[in-house]
Amino acid sequence: MATGRTHRPATRSRGIPEATVARLPLYLRALTALSERSVPTVSSEELAAAAGVNSAKLRKDFSYLGSYGTRGVGYDVEYLVYQISRELGLTQDWPVVIVGIGNLGAALANYGGFASRGFRVAALIDADPAMAGKPVAGIAVQHTDELESIISDNGVSIGVIATPAGAAQQVCERLVAAGVTSILNFAPTVLSVPDGVDVRKVDLSIELQILAFHEQRKAGEEAAQDAAQAGATAPAPARASRVLPDAAATPATAATGPATGAATAPVASADARDNQGPDGDVPAVMPA
Amino acid sequence: MATGRTHRPATRSRGIPEATVARLPLYLRALTALSERSVPTVSSEELAAAAGVNSAKLRKDFSYLGSYGTRGVGYDVEYLVYQISRELGLTQDWPVVIVGIGNLGAALANYGGFASRGFRVAALIDADPAMAGKPVAGIAVQHTDELESIISDNGVSIGVIATPAGAAQQVCERLVAAGVTSILNFAPTVLSVPDGVDVRKVDLSIELQILAFHEQRKAGEEAAQDAAQAGATAPAPARASRVLPDAAATPATAATGPATGAATAPVASADARDNQGPDGDVPAVMPA
DNA sequence: TTGTGTGAATGCCTTCACAGCT
DNA sequence: AGCTGTGAAGGCATTCACACAA
Minimal Cα–Cα distance from B62 to chain A, Å? Predict the structure, then answer.
């Protein structure tokens, strides 16, 4: 399920697996660091370690791009940096707009990782008239009314949504109507978009919940072990290191469905009544 | 599973696929929305649409938790909210600390999605003495010196790193030494951690690069089609192109540790020259 | 000898399709 | 009749292990 796959003439002669695409930025970062230290070549083993993956995977990934390495030697750092950049489309300029200049929007606007990767913040947009004109990260915030003209005047095809959940779907529709075809969504809502538009979602709450799941399990195992070997050894090493899946490899595509039905997500939910005595659950986390 | 299931939910969490765990928060959010609208039951089809996945996948996911639905009817919203919350460990309180109170750290501190899901910001920590005492999101920022005592006094097991790349590894080590076993990393660096510690990474730059990859491909297809049939205009985007991404250097450090092949976490990018400022110029997350 | 490139094997995830409960 | 729960099948992704190039 590639992102935004339509049932049209799907020319996929150049099929790089999604999982591989998601790791290319990772390799690129490691390679850039090596490049700055003037390291001429690097082996798959070294690069893999720097990127946090295993070497077999890295070699397989690179094999999809072509044979850019030299047997018995390794990969030429500079050359590889260029090839990956080109493959990712970073050799061209990508103007992006950020909609919703709250704490997060401001953080994104100030993020330095943009420029060096070919991304240029073309505009900051906010619905609050009071924000208009205010400079954030050296750029004057513009009002939502200007959204359409900004997009078309700058040829923007990538938009970042950092608005509250309630406004996300509407902003999304305006962006798409104006010509944006790729959206990075930070609002906790499932955006519904037409075919051909890619959506990627980032949600801190979700990441934390996944961590909590594993954390809870760790606590359970510990308890079980402690119980099993009551006071046996002190330095009880919970050898169960859990390797979490990367959060980056999630395509996230348009929600099928007709209308934009349930677009509103709760930012302040009423929480569940969690009094019910959960079976065998630890009541609290570590006593203070 | 032919395992006869009785009325008693026996927490068979032993083998919930990672992919499923990653989707549970998604279902939970959709269910919470339904709950607030007082919807009593929901079918896999409806819930799947609201969560942006397909129904077969959703049913399969739920089957790992147990049989919480009713054939011919659907799922009881309230009950499912509770079951998923419990499975994720959200029925307990998770104190978290946020290290690095720059734009991003502040955005995270202000995020409303925490409290409603069992997460409580126990403390905000920053290395800049000038920040100490300053209130952010109603909480006074504390200096890094207090890190260890804060962690142990509050029984914190989850830490969020929103510092510049250069400080991330060190902060990570202190957090781990103090007892933190789950880390959400926003700094564009591969963290090296001992076994038993989970790390999840969020990186805006990577997300944008993945979008750029697909966007580039779309442009290519479009061009092919446009060439085949000139005319039929639309908000034709005009993109300037800048050859080569280089130009500026990317000092950022890569605290790469061979590690035991454990620590799994996607990496990041973003240049971020080591401006020691408290201003975490890191990717971000969260709705404003 | 060293380290890439890659068929083959393995395992995980998704999708299908239908049996079975309400 | 409707919808869940789930074996079975099909796709991807990862890992293995080794032929082959330098």
Answer: 16
> Nearest-CA distance from B14 to chain A in Å?
9
What is the C-alpha separation between A28 and A85, in angstroms, rounded?
7
Are residues B237 and A101, on separate chains, in Cβ contact within 8 Å?
no
Q: Which residues of chain B register pLDDT less than 70?
A: 1-14, 221-288
Residues packed against strand C, CB within 7 Å: A 1, 43-45, 55-56, 59-60, 62-63, 67-75, 245; B 17-20, 54, 56-57, 59-60, 70-73
Contact: A152, B235; criterion CB under 8 Å: yes
Contacts A203 to B, Cβ<8 Å: 25, 285-286
In this structure, what DSSP letter does residue A91 have?
T
Residues A210, B162, B92, A249, Cα dihedral to 10°: -10
Inter-chain Cβ pairs, chain A and chain B, closer than 8 A:
449
Residues of chain A with pLDDT under 70: 1-14, 221-288
Is the CB of A118 less than 8 angstroms away from the CB of B224? no
Full-model pTM: 0.79
Q: Which of A168, A218, A237 sits opposite B181 (nearest CB)?
A: A218
Pick from B4, B108, B198, B238: nearest CA to A103: B108
Query: Helix axis angle, B18-36 relative to A204-228, nearest 10°?
Result: 120
Domains detected in chain A = 18-87 (1.10.10.10), 94-205 (3.40.50.720)
Cα B68 to Cα B9: distance, rounded to the nearest angstrom: 9
B57 strand D contact, CB < 7 Å:
no
Which residues are registered as beta bridge partners of B183? B159, B199
Closest-approach residue (CA) in chain B for A252: B52
- Any idea which nucleotide's C1' is nearest the CA of B57? C14
Spatial distance between the Cα atoms of A219 and B203, rounded to a whole number of angstroms? 28
Q: Give the separation between CA A125 and CA A98, rounded to whole angstroms.
A: 6
Give the residue from A216, A233, A83 showing the smallest Cα distance to B24.
A216
**Do B25 and A206 count as a contact with CB atoms less than 8 A apart?**
yes
Place of tokens 């989850």: B158
Nearest to B81 by CA among B22, B19, B121, B38: B38
Report the candidate in A285, A48, A162, A152 with the shortest Cα–Cα distance to residue B152. A285
Gap from B281 CA to chain A (nearest CA, Å): 5
Beta bridge partners of B126: B143
Under a CB-based contact definition with an 8 Å cutoff, are residues B83 and B66 in contact?
yes
pLDDT in tens, A178-199: 999 999 999 999 999 999 999 9
Which secondary structure element, helix H or strand E, spans residue B42, and what is its range?
A: strand B41-42
